[in-house]
Amino acid sequence: MTAQAAEIPQTRHRSMSLPSARRLLLWTGLAVLLAWVLVPIYLVALGAFGGRLGVFRWPKSIWPTDLSLAAMTQFLAIEGVFNALVNSLIAAGLTVVFSILLGAPAGYALARYDFRGQNAFRLLVLLTRAFPLAILALPLTVSFIRLGLYDTPFGVSLIHTVLALPFAALVTQSLFMGIPREYEEAAWVFGCTRFQAFIRVVLPLALPGLAATAIFAFVISWNEVFAASILTVRERTLTAYLLRILAESPLHYRFAGGFILIIPSVLFIFAVRRYLFAVWGIASK
Amino acid sequence: MADIVIDRVVKEFGPFRALQEISLTVNDGEFVALLGPSGCGKTTLLRIIAGLETQTSGRIVIGGQDVSNLAPRKRGLAMVFQNYAIFPHMSVFENVAFGLRMQKAAQAEVKRKVERAAALLHIEGYLDRYPAKLSGGQRQRVAVARALAVEPAVLLMDEPLSNLDALLRLEMRTELKAVLRQAGTTTIYVTHDQTEAMGLADRIAVMYGGKIDQIGSPLEIYATPATRFVGGFIGAPPMNFIKVRCHGGTARIGDATLPCPSTVTDLELGLRGEDASLSANGSGIPFDVRVVEPMGSHLLLTGSIDGQLARIVAPPVAKVNPGVRVGLNVDPARVTWIDSATGRAVARA
């Protein structure tokens, strides 16, 4: 009886210790990952809202002191910043639309059909990323000027689409491969044309993955500096514009600029996070 | 309702000939099973009938209309897929209603027909659930209900029970037979499971190597196989094949003799395990018993006849020990003679 009583707590202790060690590891990993992402954002935010003095104070305080929106509002009031922000949103939005409209059909074709040159096509799509943009810069500028695309967010979005397209095509390819062909075949048998089957059956199932593709495209466009800088003069995107003006700005303006650059990506990912989790939930099954 | 005529259909995948000139007529309201091992072309044939695959040559005629080049949606058929292909983003109701919605049926009619199909398959209880919340058997029912809801002229089924566990399979098989008899739909059913084919079908087409080896009622196919393959594929244990030489209309095995067709000399005796009975005094065909397996309903004896492997079914109470030689009585009318050279049955006298 006593031996039994002594044994039971011991086994219980052992069975508890393994999961709790694993849990500790999990939470530590989570904390490190969170810190990795959040600490820099926090420091940038601190610089952006801490005002002129906060940036130079030493030793730095971890907690926000004398918060003010002054730097932010002053920064936004700088001539052209708001315009550049709008340009960036237009370019990124168009990049999302184009890369989905062009990339998703390519991904669908790669996933569903066997055709001659399939592997060559796949490689070619990737090779567009291997081609250095710097070499293209001058001829591109010349032809953009000729076509009337120079210095427009639309022109910038075309180049960004080229950059985002490989991701769009390859991500959507694996996405469509994950949707069983039988779903479509069932739809055909029960009265759908190919197009109807795609709209009614494939598209709803692909939506989470398409959202992820959209994020990639948006972030690629939003972060891109080089092409945006050479293809625009007045109608700059935010990154290109900031690159020029921040070099001549006081430090707290730079923080404000950096913070504004971070915000849209974070908001965008936040908005589509539901679809992202869905896509990873499917993948992990 | 419609009949199906498959007229000399050939399918080639590159140099590989998956179907070699298949011809088959399925009568109105008939249930035909395509039975065969994997890779025999049965699923390819079904997909060609459905329009999901294009034949290399030949015609498919459904209800008098040549549908060879029509899209699947214009062929007036419904299909149950092996993995069910229930749309995961639609409720059970919408899944069953899918075909009717595509026909632009009025809401009241959709509701009525969906409810009838659901009642037929006992899924009324979870019409508003999503497929992820259903068990395999329930999904299977939804797939059949979706197919029956459109009241198709032709129903195609591609191994619909193969993903269910054994008990559920038996239950669904019985139910499927009752439901389909009631609906009176012309049905083609692909399976590699002989008990399913035997239990469900009016006629079975046994396929092997891209050809139909034999078409007939389950009993015909079982009792009088047309080829060595059919005899060996159907039945558990499979038919025994014993090589014998036939001289002047008599084959000699040990001390026993059997009348045989005299047109061919190199023959194989096709003998069903249950068509041989143990003789009382050890006369008849000598059978060396090696293993005795009591199966409950019968004894399964494995051993050799004339040095060739054979399996014989004996009554459960028979007293047989491994290692002994027993005699078998065989009714000459119930044996099949196979020509060794061609593998085809020799015509009965």
Automatic annotation (TrEMBL), chain B:
Transmembrane segments: none annotated. Residues 4-234 form the ABC transporter domain. Pfam families: ABC_tran, TOBE_2. Keywords: ATP-binding, Cell membrane, Membrane, Nucleotide-binding, Translocase, Transport. One of its GO terms (molecular function) is ATP binding. InterPro entries: AAA+_ATPase (IPR003593), ABC_transporter-like_ATP-bd (IPR003439), ABC_transporter-like_CS (IPR017871), ABC_transpr_MalK/UgpC-like (IPR047641), Mo/tungstate-bd_C_term_dom (IPR008995), NA-bd_OB-fold (IPR012340), P-loop_NTPase (IPR027417), Transp-assoc_OB_typ2 (IPR013611). Belongs to the ABC transporter superfamily. This is ATP-binding cassette domain-containing protein.
